[in-house]
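Example record for the data management plan.
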Amino acid sequence: MHEFSLAQGLMQQLVDLAGQHRAQKICTVRVAIGTRSGIVMDSFSFGFEVLAGENGLTRESVLEITETEGNDLILSQVEME
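Corresponding structural encoding:
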């Protein structure tokens, strides 16, 4: 399941961003997933939920996914406190 690996990569980016901005909590994560990316959105979302629950920074995070044209996975916005 490569979606879980992608979710792990995203989680690492989020932890790095939180550290750079001295954030205590990540509230909302917005990503865009291309229709030709080969990513199963439900599987990606499930992986994110599992991993988010394991980290105090992301435990209450909400993942918002927008479907776009193309084949990319893009982190478009992160809301932190």
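Summary line stored alongside the record: The chain has a mean pLDDT of 96.
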